[in-house]
Amino acid sequence: MKVLVTGFNGQLGYDIVNLLKSQNVECVGVDINDFDLTDEKSVRDYVLNYNPNVIVHCAAYTAVDKAEDDRELCYKVNVDGTRYLAKVAKELDAKFVYFSTDYVFPGTGTQMYKEDDQTGPTNQYGITKLKGEEAVKELLEKYFICRISWVFGENGNNFIKTMLRLSETRDKLTVVNDQIGSPTYCKDVAKLVCEMIKTEKYGTYHVTNEGLCSWYEFACEIFKQAGRNITVEPVDSTAFPVKAERPKNSRMSKDKLEENGFERLPTWQDALGRFLKNIGE
Ligand SMILES: NC(=O)c1ccc[n+]([C@@H]2O[C@H](COP(=O)([O-])OP(=O)(O)OC[C@H]3O[C@@H](n4cnc5c(N)ncnc54)[C@H](OP(=O)(O)O)[C@@H]3O)[C@@H](O)[C@H]2O)c1
Q1: DSSP assigned state of 44
Q2: How many folded domains does the chain comprise?
Q3: Is residue 238 within 8 Å of 176, Cβ to Cβ?
Q4: Is the shortest distance between the CB of 130 and ligand 1 below 6 Å?
Q5: Is 61 one of the catalytic residues?
Q6: pLDDT tens by residue, 210-245
Q7: Ligand 1: which atom is nearest the Cα of residue 12?
Q8: Looking at residue 76, which CATH number applies to its domain?
């Protein structure tokens, strides 16, 4: 197996490359300095030259609010860039992993979304990530689409690091309590994906840690586990106006993982504990 991983400077790409290396799998982690996803020739030249038989595509335009104004670049990276990579994967007959998001769903109601449920993104980022999924499905047969949400990893910024930072200067915080989802630890996703790519169980999967919470409940658990003494108050999303609308319901069913012989990820509380330990908390 020879694996090319995009988004190496990001949260998820970094952990996937490190896990592959620890398993002695031949791999390379690339980022925008190696090739810009918006430049088809650079993408093709680099990938053909490396000649992987698996491509794990973690890179994306991920600035959700900025994307509302920066639509063109977001589309170029998330849709065109994904299409360029998928085209080379087809040429090489390589397996392809694409990371998508809970934001492909409208996020209404309280049901658990299944992989085949009707999509309907409500913001630009979600629209482009869904179009990226469609490009992958249109061009390839040997693909894994992994929808993840509320991602945290050691290499990058995320909600946990923000909460810990804020708690150093404040004794009270308000956190949104009307968006429900599942946090996702990069190290756990990396472990599953490294198993997935050894199989031919292609298709779309939901890959998040087990259990559900609101951002408020997530924040409370972070401070509890980190031993920080701070008051957290629950508020509605309306208290924090943002450019891009967020889904209120990000509940995603992971039954399909088990049905296909993959292990479910540990609970988000367990993942949080390991993350805090790894960052020295
Ligand atoms: N973070 C979340 O909460 C979340 C939730 C659901 C799904 N996802 C998806 O999961 C995947 C991994 O997310 P993440 O949190 O690891 O993302 P991240 O930390 O924001 O990393 C994204 C990476 O993509 C690179 N990139 C951006 N534009 C590029 C371009 N034009 N050419 C080449 N590389 C480019 C970035 O490089 P620079 O740093 O050099 O710009 C960065 O290394 C993404 O597909 C994302 O859409 C993330």
Answers
A1: H
A2: 1
A3: no
A4: no
A5: no
A6: 999 999 999 999 999 999 999 999 999 999 999 999
A7: 16
A8: 3.40.50.720
